[in-house]
Design brief:
- The chain has helices at residues 2-12, 57-67, 90-94, and strands at residues 18-24, 37-43, 72-81, 102-107, 115-122, 125-129.
- It has 135 residues and is of the alpha+beta class.
- The chain has one domain (2-129): Cytidine Deaminase, domain 2 (3-Layer(aba) Sandwich).
- A six-stranded mixed sheet has the order 2-1-3-4-5-6.
- The mean pLDDT is 91.
């Protein structure tokens, strides 16, 4: 899945790509999030450009409807930074409206070696979390 996210970033470069992450609904528990992200769903970037992204809310809603009753949920979002590090920008932090989400950022600053990092962003603070790729 991380390979798919990096490939999406390469295809949309020099613009930012974006998408949604799907996993077990336990990932949304703010007290003790647990689970596995098992799907990355590409989304339309409504603010297409090299420094911004905004996921189409209709695509977000359609994915939520598809997942109803499955024990899976939209558990996060991903986007790319075509020329900067995989750390959240100021706008990434201020526009992180879902405190339960996992935010994954892929950097193409070194195109042959994409950097992928994950973050929890709550109350204006970003905390890095460890990604453990599944076989």
């Amino acid at each position: 899945m991380l390979h798919d996210i990096a490939e999406h970033a390469r295809q949309d470069s020099p613009d930012e790509c974006c998408g949604l992450l799907v996993g077990s609904d336990g990932l949304l528990d703010l007290r003790r999030p647990e689970g596995v992200i098992d799907e990355a769903v590409r989304a339309t970037n409504l603010e297409r450009g090299p420094t911004r992204y905004r996921i189409d809310p209709m695509e977000h809603l359609a994915l939520q409807k598809r997942l109803r009753g499955t024990g899976r949920a939209v558990a996060g979002a991903y986007h790319s930074h075509p020329g900067t590090s995989a750390a959240p920008s100021m706008s990434d932090v201020t526009e992180a409206f879902y405190p339960e989400f996992l935010y994954v950022i892929v950097s193409l600053a070194r195109p042959d070696h994409p950097e992928i990092r994950a973050w929890r962003i709550r109350s204006g603070a970003a905390r890095e979390v460890t990604l453990v790729p599944q076989p």
